[in-house]
Input
Amino acid sequence: MGDLLSDFAKATRKLKLQGKKRKAKGNSAKFSDMEADQVQAKKTDAHGAETGEVSKPAPKPATNQKNQTLTAHDTAVANHKKDYEIKRDQAIANGESKRTIGAYKARVTEAKGEAAASDYMTKNHPDAEMVQGFSKGSGFDQVWVKRAPDGSIEEYIIVEAKGPGAKLAIKGGKGPQMSQQWVDNTNIEMTTSKNPEISQLGKDLTDAIDYGPPPKVSGLGLEAVEKNGVVTGAKEITLPNGTAFN
Output
C-alpha cells in the first residue's frame, strides 16, 4: 500500500508539471510583457520631427537575486568564521578543554570550506546562480542553478563544502554524504521545513530527480585548499555515486 501511494503521489506531481509546461507554451506574448529594451523608439527634435536616430534602451539594474543571495552567503560565512575565531582564542586563553577548543576550530574550518566553495563556483561556473547559501537548518551547504535564455532552470548543482582536511561523512542516518540516498533524504527534510523557500526548493529538487532531466541535477564536493594557514582555493572530492543524481 505504501508503494502504491508513493507511485500515485509521483504520478500526480508529474501531471501537474506537464500541465504547467503546456500552459507556459500556450501563453502568447503580450506587448505589456515586453522589456523596455525590446522596444525601439525613434528620436524626435524639438518640433516632434523624427531625426532618424534610435533611442538607446535604458540600462538594466546591476543588482539581481544572484548577487543578493551570494552577498548574504558571503556575509554570513565571514561572520561565522570571525565569531568562532574569537571563541577559539578565548577558550585557549582560558585553558578550556581540548574538546571545546576543537569544536570551535571545527566551526572555523567549516567557514573556510564554505567560502572556498562559493569562490570556486563563481570562478569555474560563472553562469551559475546561487539559490541557497550558508544558513542554519535543513538543506544542503549550497545550491546553484544554471538557466536557459528564457529563464527556466536547466541544471541544479548541489555543493557540499568541506574545510581543509575535512572529508565526506560515511556513516549517518541519511546514508553516506553526497550519495544518492543522502541527497534524496535531504530533499525530504527540506520539504518539511517551515521556511517556504527551503521547502519549495526541496520539492523542486525532488521533482527534478524523479522526472528529469531536464532539469539536470548534479553534485560537487569541494574541499578548501590551505597553504601556511591561508586558503588558496578548492579541489573536487570524489562522490560515492558520481556527480549525476538523475
